[in-house]
Design brief:
50 residues; mainly alpha; 84% helix; elongated
Length: 50
Amino acid sequence: MFEVIVIALLMIITGLLLHINSKLPARDRVQEAMGRDRDRRDSQNQSRNR
C-alpha cells in the first residue's frame, strides 16, 4: 500500500514538473555560452589593460 502511494506521488510530481517546464521560455544554450565566454574575455582584457 505504501509503495502505491509513493509511486502515485512521484507520478504527480513528475507531471507537475513537466507542466511547469513546458511553460518556461525556450533557451538557446549555445548563445548563452557564447555570451558568457565573451563577457569573461572582456573582463580579462579590462583587467590586463589597467
